[in-house]
Amino acid sequence: MELADELQDPAVGHAWALVDGAPLQLQDFRGTVYRTNTGAALIWNELGELPQGLTTSERPGPYHLWVKGKWMLDASAETAGLAKQALEQRTALMVQATVAIAPLLDAVELDMATEEERTRYEAWRRYRVLLNRVELQDGFPRAIEWPVIPA
Description:
35% of the residues lie in helices and 21% in strands. The chain is of the alpha+beta class and 151 residues long. It has a three-stranded antiparallel sheet, with no helix packed on it. A two-stranded antiparallel ribbon has the order 1-2. A two-stranded antiparallel ribbon has the order 6-7.
């Protein structure tokens, strides 16, 4: 279709489209947009208003929710998520400590331990006790002082 007049550049954030045979400026959100219920990115290829449930604003983090037209931090969800991560890390470190302690315990119980093995055994046991107490720290789960792994 030919137009009688050349079109001016569209306004910022708009693009020209033919609507019912006439040129019309429509909002242009083509490109990456985000689902407001999950924050998932998707490619948008249409002109015009975004449907409800989509935004051009990227979700800042996994603990943000779409509230009244903007992303808001859900502090309680963030705290719960950080606690879950910390406890998973603690469990992994406890397994590592238990594996390290087992042969040392055998040597101690069989009265076969060298002085170095006894020292390492006590250090690993102290470490495991301190690991077990991380969630009692005042800063848990946002600021955790993890015990140092024995040498």
